[in-house]
User: Fold this.
Amino acid sequence: MKRISTALLVTVISSLFLAACASSPAAAPEPQIVEVIKEVIKEVPVEVVKEVEVVREVEVVKEVEKEVIREVVVIATPGPVSEGQFFMQTLDAFPQRGGTLRLGAHGPPAHFDMAASVTIANHGSQSAMYDTLLRHDPRTSSVPIVPDLAHSWEISPDGQTYRFFLRKGVKFHDGAELTSADVKATYDRIIFPREGLVSLRQVFFQAVESVVTPDDYTVEFVLKEPRAPDTMLASFASEWNHIVKKDVLDANDGNLRQIDDHPGTGPFKYMSRDDDKWVVEKNVDYWNPNAPYVDRIEHVWLVAWTPQNTAALLGGQTDWTMWLAPKDGRNIADKEGFNQARMHSFTAGMVNLNVEHEGLDNPLVRRAMMLAVDAPILVETVKDIIGIEWGEFFVAGTPYALSSSESAKIPGIRSPTEEDLAEAKRLMAEAGYPDGEGFPTLDLLTRETPDQRTQMPALQAMLLERLGIKGEIRLSDVSQYIEDTVDGNYDVALGSSKSLAGDPSDYFRNAYGVCGEQLCDNNFSRWRNDEFNQLMREFELELDLDKRIAITNDLRTLLLQEAPAIPTINSEIVYWGWNDDVKGMMPNDSDFFTWYELHKWDNVWLDRR
Amino acid sequence: MYTYIAKRLLYAIPALFGVTILIFVIMRVLPGDPLGAYFGVEEIKRLTDAQKAEVLNDLGLDRPYIVQYGSWIGDILLRGSLGESFFRGDPIIRILASRAPISAEIGILSVLISWLIGLPVGIISAFRPQSKMDSTASMFTVLFLAIPGFWLGMLLVVGQITLFGYKSPITAVQIWQNPWINFQIIIGPAIVLGLGQAAYIARMARSSLFEVLRDDYVRTARAKGLGEKLVLVRHALPNALLPVITLSGVLLGFVLGGSVAIEQAFAAPGLGKALVAAAIDRDFNVVQNITLFYAVVFIVVNLFVDLLYGWLDPRIRLS
Assistant:
């Protein structure tokens, strides 16, 4: 209350003070007129010529180099690196160094020219001495493609140029530095061999038009037409295409068949070779600072699938081996102190029906045979002789193949049901051969190998019992067999088609198509079908995976209708085994898909404490 | 004596000549294309005529057979060279040098084993005919005659691995390099071959000794009051052993042939294994020269046995 009274008092006093200070009002003066002149602007339009720049687009063609990088792959690794590059190393934390790794090797090779070889006898013993542009990572069962001599690579958007950037400072075993000229010389030898020189992997680079070297550390592969990148990269990553020295190729006119110790850039150097083994030693100047771990590798010659091979591993004479007999390969997983892995090669096997011969020239008959033959049983009969898996036309481990459960639903691929057999009989009757009456006796060409000698009688019995078709088995040694299959002197023959990367553009065309005007190498059915060849052409040029799968579905449908061959297997298994001393390998009991790769051994160490 | 040796060596010439022709022809008429071994049986389909021609020219296979044969024999006779491996270019003399000693050791050791086992068994059987000992010995001799050496070898290998986790070495180590490892290589094949031979030796020793023990001079020795041991060692055995020695010479020849399969079973790095590998490879040069080497050894061993026979029995005059 006191505060309010004080505030009112201050307000009243202030008002009185202000009133007292105010001036008193003066008398009002007479008003005066002041003239103010104000300019008002009136706009009058006047024509003025003014130049204005008008842009009109005229097409002028000018080539401008503009590249869009589609894919750059550089995989980092936790090991010592330079320039952020990938270097192979073991995944184990504390690897030991030193020791001698003893490998059971199929061999010895008949010659030493890898470009002219498709046998593991060469590849198994020579790969550790050389490098490739790219490689498969052997540490995991997915075996992804990783850098090797090329630290990175690019693929042009049109899929027609593959550019590889080489590591610098890579030395051959004789001290010379690797340059792009060596890579070009190697691939020229493979892709464009001079007349008379054998190149057995030329087929995988058929689309390559030229190999060019913009500089010492860049190499480009220019393709005539695009190819699926997966297939091309797998070809460049294949250990079979190892890089050799240009000087060596020049000095020998490209023929290395008798040259066993020409320098490579690989983790191991040539040491000695005799009738027992091929020995290589650690390359101390190897460009990868992590590798190799072992000092020496002995490739001990053993024969595939023999008891001696298994005995050598179990008895401690070898540390690792492949080509274990299937039964031994399966059993070794149960033995203490041993490990096992199953390498699936991209192989499609089939019963070929010669469509040029009487009876088999009728698609109804072929389809009937396809429905009646029990492929899973044919495979079962030889499961202890060779490692194979029943399957459809397309090789397993690729996006084009059906799973086993899917295949088991398809008449003509699956074990025949009652309905399938009834349909097969109906087709035979429709073709004019009820219960096989009047059908010519088939010539069943059989190669003198344990698997064919076992499978063919089973096939013979199936055809007779289910369709009334008679067949006579004709045993043939290998050279005669090849001659007969090339000339078409047979009605029915077992065969297979193999692939480097599992892409149908190689093995599928090879098995059922034409190459140029000729039947392809493995087209034992001698089947010529324009629709098939057109679809294959579309497939080869198509880069989109979904569209490629759609085309393979069409191809499968066509083959099921026309039945030039009866599919039996879509994977061949090679059993690996190794003892517990060997470390750095892929996990025990792995399944992996490659074409006999993974023989550099730079990720492997020995635990011999 | 020297005349006899010279005659025998002269007789050996046509035999060796026949062997060279036989093996040369067999290697060429047997099915199998050397190009298939070279590039892979499936892959030779891909080769053009020009490619095939170049390789055949490199290998010398485009020459007429008579020229190829003449070249092989000419190399041996004129240059003293066995030539080189058909494909890899390895000197064949090097293959023989590393493999032959091991096969020779296996052969010699197997003969020793056959004597060590076969002779006592034969002697006991001869001294105690129709006894339980004789019956048991007969049973085992028949058994080892019947069992294929290759199968027995496999059985031994499996047994070693199953029971001991052991496998004998599979790469060549000579006796002068490491006697212990070398012994491990040869002992398995030698035992298997030796057991097979021991059965023959035992049967031969039994029948021979059985006959000798009934001879007049043995009866005379006994009548003089000599002990059975002395009768055996001094009088009966030297005469009874003559056919056994002859048999051993023949068996040594069979050992050479048999060792091919046995070495395979043990993966022993002998000449037999090299021969099989070369045959699979269609390496004509290696097969021809190893076979020729076997023939020479067989002839020399038989000559040696004949000479030994004459030395042991002075009644035999080699001339």
Residues 2-21 of chain A form the longest helix (20 residues). Residues 228 and 543 of chain A are 5 Å apart (CA to CA). The first strand of chain A starts at residue 100 and ends at 106.
